[in-house]
Design a protein that fits this description.
alpha/beta; 434 Repressor (Amino-terminal Domain); five-stranded mixed β-sheet; 15 helices; 15 strands; globular
């Protein structure tokens, strides 16, 4: 794309209408300036998370900024989100009465075989799995693999649990490409934050199913001797930061007193842990389970409520009913209670937004 035509990219048009520089958009979206430049020049197709972050910063929908036609394959099949490659594997599921295709990702604990492959926009089916027997969830619970395994064993349905921050998960729910979105903004001090966030982003007509309560805090290298959260906020210079819109990023911004810019973003609790364990970050915000499983020190900051949000109209769907039964079962609640930092005392409770 030429420099002249790049000025007409919807991202560039919207950014300039707001009077922002590329640096301004970079800071607000938490996306590197080089990526903003490449997106506007047509040299880069952003990831789902980056596209959502840019759209949120510019107060637009993803569809307004990026080519909606890129979701459709020959024959009318629809991608839930645009694949990053020209060929690969995919899963299928029915959401909202429509069949969607999901590019295969590494899912926590997943052993699901792909349903087909695509090459040059041509689908090659390999599975006769009933698309109406798959439940699609977006969220950042590191124990989602355990949930998927239990769910399959108890119900015979399949659970695809895609790793996304709370803000990105709600956006996917709003777009109608997932059944369930997980978020964990409610705390002991602000117990209604999950409901308020759903109402603000999606409106009414939704249900919240409590998955667990858990501890979120700061992961530190094993040999670190920092004794308090306050000391971490004061002395740590290199944080492993989550993407804007995630509860972990919100928690970190609260600790530091203001939003922070980041050159590189971690898209999961596990990615934060790997950054700290690998030594390129001094600390990061994540849930206790990830920190302890990685052998890191953990300083608790707050207790949060992890809720699963779904449309109230879908509550009678057999896939949702199977999920509710599982979360309310004694065996599942006992398993959740045994995970570091998790509390199942309210697991299975339902609330209306």
């Amino acid at each position: 794309m030429s420099r002249a035509s790049s000025q007409h990219h919807p991202v560039a048009v919207r950014r300039k209408a707001l009077g922002w520089s590329q640096d301004d958009l970079s800071a607000r979206a938490g996306v590197p300036r080089s990526s903003v430049s490449a997106i506007e020049a047509g040299r880069l197709t952003p990831s789902v998370t980056a596209a959502l972050a840019v759209a949120q910063a510019l107060e637009c929908s993803v569809e307004e900024l990026f080519d909606p036609g890129g979701k459709t394959l020959a024959g009318g099949a629809l991608w839930a989100w645009k694949p990053r490659m020209d060929s690969g594997r995919y899963w299928e599921a029915e959401v909202g009465g429509r069949k969607w295709l999901y590019p295969v990702e590494t899912l926590s604990g997943s052993t699901w075989a792909h349903d087909g492959i695509w090459r040059d926009e041509v689908l090659h089916e390999r599975s006769d799995w009933d698309v109406a027997r798959t439940l699609v969830l977006a969220g950042c619970d590191p124990a989602a693999g355990l949930l998927a395994a239990e769910y399959a064993a108890a119900s015979g349905f399949r659970l695809l649990a895609f790793t996304r921050g709370g803000g990105a998960a709600l956006d996917l729910l709003k777009q109608g490409v997932v059944h369930v979105a997980a978020l964990h903004r409610s705390t002991e001090e602000k117990p209604q934050r999950n409901s308020e966030t759903v109402r603000e982003k999606l409106g009414g007509g939704y249900r919240l199913l409590r998955s667990a309560d858990w501890q979120e805090g700061i992961a530190l290298p094993p040999g670190d001797t920092t004794q308090s959260v306050t000391a971490c906020a004061r002395h740590v210079r290199q944080w492993a930061m989550r993407e804007p819109g995630s509860a972990a990023r919100e928690c970190l911004d609260d600790l530091l007193g203001k939003p922070q810019a980041a050159r590189r973003l971690m898209l999961s609790h596990q990615a934060v842990v790997e950054a700290v364990r690998g030594g390129w970050a001094e600390a990061g915000v994540c849930v206790r389970l990830c920190a302890e499983d990685a052998g890191l020190r953990f300083l608790p900051v707050r207790k949060e409520s992890l809720d699963l949000c779904f449309p109230a109209a879908m509550e009678r769907d057999p896939r949702l009913q199977a999920l509710i039964r599982l979360l309310r079962s004694r065996a599942h609640r006992r398993l959740i209670d045994e995970l570091p930092g998790y509390d199942a005392s309210r697991t299975g409770e339902l609330a209306t937004v």
